[in-house]
Write a structure and sequence with these properties.
The structure holds two protein chains of two kinds.
Chain A: H1 15-27, H2 41-50, H3 54-85, H4 87-102, H5 108-116, H6 120-144, H7 148-156, H8 161-199, H9 204-213, H10 217-248
Chain B: H1 6-25, H2 37-50, H3 53-84, H4 86-90, H5 93-100, H6 107-115, H7 119-143, H8 147-155, H9 160-197, H10 202-212, H11 216-244, H12 251-255
Helix pairs in contact in B: 2-11, 3-7, 3-9, 3-10, 6-7, 7-9, 9-10, 9-11, 10-11
The chains are: A mainly alpha, B mainly alpha.
Chain lengths: 257, 259
């Protein structure tokens, strides 16, 4: 476990965060309308939990996130392999991909809402569609950087295209895939919350907007803290998974021709 | 990697548009609100004639640049402090690791609560997330300044401020610029989000407005405009970086890292 988190900085670095929260607790009045003290956050979420609203919202957000990210990984990697491996496809799609890279992902949400409507399918589809691009673009770059020499080796060994894919292309693209997923993780979480806030589909995002509409600042802060923990844990889980994958399939030294 | 041939790239775009047009015309893609590219082109005409496009672009750009500049100023100074002092690093890095994974969008309800529908609300949403790429890259760039260069500052007995201005910042500049570029991209994304959910102004609001008004042609026209704005911002900062540090950036360093 420790080796998997080797880059993690010393825990005493958390002191500023704890200090700010403690000062806040001491300085803010119990009824402060804008900056309610941290001690008032817990009753706010406990109230939500007692009404049976919190757990389903967290479950809805998490399941959309996981499903969307998984689909984006599979589709993005497959398309990325295709585009990266076939030179002509890469050239023909270059300008489209360049444009999609620059397009801010949130604008795809209103399009999906208008086309598909306010449904759970739309929610997963839009997360998939946006989280796809970092995976796809990184995979394309990873495959495109495989040295020609390695493909020549494959040719002279008379490998079938299947063997080429599994023995050369996929292993070489693996680090790029992981980098792509690392970029997709925060994006998928943001888009999930955005869809919930924008459409009122169930999830933490919806609860946050409701808290803001009711001027319940403790609820907004409490949910902000929950989203913060969620973001932190999801990134951590991915980091550990990444290290496990890289330990099992270490990146091979690249042979340049 | 070879530079992609732009003629084939353009051909790809035209092919994509032609297939899209055919799919819509032949009712093969029968979504009620999916316009064909030719309808979107007409939508662009409507957009220019009947919508305050220039004001909307100006509003979004103002939010993006103000937020980005503030994030950059705070990020560079904090990153410098962290890069220079191992003590500061030990006592803050874990906090930074926790805070930087907080999704920026989670600040939208809070910013709405505190600032209502205003430019300040947008800035509150932009600054926090846009801070981290600058901070982390500045810190990494300063921490990676070679020992010999640090010795030069010591031997010349440079005052601390001189050492920062003449040795550390120039040495860390390429890394800082990468952070600034990432942060600018992020600022546009967050401005659009803030306008979609909160402040009813600018391009982000325009997209949701046309979506709710069931004007798909105009909505697509706005979305395409936002994409071009993203390209323009990226090109502007890459160009500025090349001007500031001639010869330090090939196309690979600044142009192609995934956003």
């Amino acid at each position: 476990m420790k080796a998997l988190l080797q880059d993690w900085p010393p825990l005493r670095g958390l002191l500023p965060l704890i200090g700010v929260l403690a000062l806040w607790q001491l300085a803010a009045g119990e009824q402060s309308p804008n900056f309610p003290p941290p001690s008032s956050w817990y009753p706010a979420v406990a109230g939500l939990a007692a009404r049976g609203l919190l757990a389903p919202a967290v479950a809805a957000t998490l399941s959309t996130f996981i499903l969307g990210l998984a689909l984006a990984t599979v589709v993005g990697f497959a398309l990325g392999l295709l585009i990266g491996a076939v030179e002509s496809v890469r050239r023909w799609s270059s300008m489209l991909l360049e444009y999609l890279r620059a397009l801010p992902p949130p604008v795809l949400v209103p399009i999906a809402v208008l086309l598909v409507g306010y449904t759970e399918t739309m929610k997963v589809a839009v997360v998939t569609l946006t989280a796809l691009w970092p995976v796809l673009l990184n995979t394309v770059a990873g495959v495109a950087e495989i040295p020609d020499l390695m493909m020549d080796v494959a040719r002279s060994l008379h490998l079938t295209w299947r063997e080429r894919l599994l023995k050369i292309v996929v292993p070489a693209a693996l680090p790029a895939l992981l980098l792509g997923i690392r970029n997709a993780v925060p994006l998928a979480l943001v888009i999930t919350l955005l869809v919930e806030m924008l459409t009122g589909l169930p999830g933490i995002g919806k609860l946050m907007i409701l808290g803001q509409r009711n001027f319940s600042s403790p609820q907004v802060f409490a949910l902000l803290a929950i989203v913060g923990v969620l973001g932190f844990v999801l990134n951590l889980v991915f980091l550990i998974a990444e290290n496990l994958v890289l330990r099992r399939w270490p990146p091979r030294p690249v042979i340049h021709g | 990697m070879r530079r992609p041939a732009s003629i084939e790239g353009l051909g790809g775009v035209l092919l994509f548009l032609a297939v899209w047009e055919l799919c819509v015309r032949s009712d093969w893609l029968a979504y009620q609100f999916l316009p064909s590219p030719s309808a979107v082109a007409l939508g662009f005409k409507d957009l220019l004639l009947t919508r305050p496009l220039a004001e909307e672009i100006l509003h979004t750009l103002t939010a993006v640049f103000l937020g980005w500049l503030i994030a950059a100023a705070v990020g560079v100074s904090m990153g410098l402090a962290l890069g220079l002092s191992a003590g500061a690093r030990r006592y803050t890095l874990a906090t930074i690791e926790v805070l930087r994974t907080l999704p920026g969008i989670a600040f939208v309800p809070l910013a709405l609560l505190l600032f209502g529908f205003s430019l300040r609300m947008e800035l509150a949403v932009i600054i926090f997330p846009a801070l981290w790429p600058v901070l982390v890259n500045t810190f990494a760039g300063v921490a990676a300044v070679p020992e010999r260069l640090r010795d030069v500052a010591t031997v010349l007995r440079l005052a601390p401020l001189d050492a920062v201005a003449k040795v550390y910042l120039p040495a860390a500049a390429p890394s800082i610029l990468v952070g600034l570029r990432l942060s600018l991209t992020l600022a546009l994304v967050l401005a659009v989000i803030a306008e979609m959910l909160g402040n009813p102004e600018g391009l982000g609001y325009a997209v949701t407005r046309e979506q709710q008004g069931l004007n798909p042609e105009l909505m697509f026209a706005y979305v395409i405009t936002i994409g071009f704005l993203g390209i323009a911002l990226n090109a502007a900062i890459v160009g500025a970086a090349r001007l500031a540090l001639p010869g330090r950036f090939g196309p690979a360093e600044l142009g192609t890292s995934p956003g």
